[in-house]
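Deliverable D2.4 — example input (structure tokens):
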């Protein structure tokens, strides 16, 4: 596997950091990663190693305001910027590698919501997607006082960021994974009211108009059965409304939020492999 880094330009004009992992042999497809809130694509090197071994070139673009990309930490001018930046990357890959190259979108948590938003509004970009623990109902369980404050801030100082209140211990049952997450200098805990509000709006739109998803989309939804951050029944509710024929929902018992980091992550990767090989 060969790894390289490069810079791209966001639709906002800011710099985006891109990691690309390529197989040693022939490239048979491209896998585009959409990472979660507070993190960055550097955390997905083990995932990249798994899929480059199968011939995929793996692309990990740090979202605007995250990782090594530019932008205020945890803030974005519009939630839709994140979708547009991924569509631009998909287009660039098609130009570089050829329009017939298979492209698969892999999104986790906030990145799963971004992925679903993309599939919902840009149906021609990807025909196959794997989504893990999508954050489709971010207001659930949030203190009503904080929700009211967030709405007020969204209209007064939308760029102001607050702590995202995520508990790292709830992300994974593997202590070393949690410790590495906490110690990672590129991980941050910030979120602005306009990013939070944009996520809430996007989730509501997905649930309100599932018929806008393309019927020819192949979709694999994955969720830890014990995830306390993004709730599995929200994913299940969306799944039931999706119009496509080739859709699969899989829960993993005993797993929390970051199923690709759990001890039994091989089971998760095997499920993805089976989906991609069908």
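Example output (designed residues):
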């Amino acid at each position: 596997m060969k790894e390289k880094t490069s810079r791209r330009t966001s639709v906002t004009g800011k710099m985006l950091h891109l990691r690309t992992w390529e197989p040693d042999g022939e490239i048979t497809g491209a896998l585009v990663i959409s990472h979660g809130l507070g993190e960055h694509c550097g955390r997905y090197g083990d995932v990249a190693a798994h899929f480059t071994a199968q011939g995929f070139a793996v692309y990990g673009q740090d979202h605007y305001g995250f990782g090594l990309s530019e932008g205020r930490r945890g803030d974005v001018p519009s939630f839709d910027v994140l979708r547009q930046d991924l569509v631009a990357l998909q287009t660039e890959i098609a130009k570089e590698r050829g329009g017939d190259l298979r492209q698969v979108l892999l999104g986790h948590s906030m990145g799963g919501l971004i992925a679903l938003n993309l599939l919902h509004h840009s149906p021609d970009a990807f025909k196959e997607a794997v989504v893990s623990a999508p954050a489709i109902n971010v207001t659930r369980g949030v203190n009503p006082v904080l929700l009211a404050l967030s709405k007020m801030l969204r209209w007064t100082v939308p760029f102001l960021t607050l702590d995202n209140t995520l508990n790292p211990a709830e992300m994974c049952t593997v202590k070393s994974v949690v410790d590495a997450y906490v110690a990672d200098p590129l991980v941050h805990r910030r979120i602005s009211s306009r990013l939070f509000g944009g996520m809430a709006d996007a989730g509501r739109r997905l649930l309100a108009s599932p018929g806008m998803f393309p019927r020819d989309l192949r979709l694999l939804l994955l969720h830890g059965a014990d995830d306390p951050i993004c709730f599995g029944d929200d994913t299940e509710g969306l799944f039931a409304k999706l119009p496509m024929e080739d859709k699969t929902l899989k829960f993993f018992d005993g797993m929390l939020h970051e199923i690709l980091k759990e001890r039994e992550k091989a089971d998760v990767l095997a499920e993805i492999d089976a989906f991609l090989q069908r």
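The radius of gyration is 17 Å.
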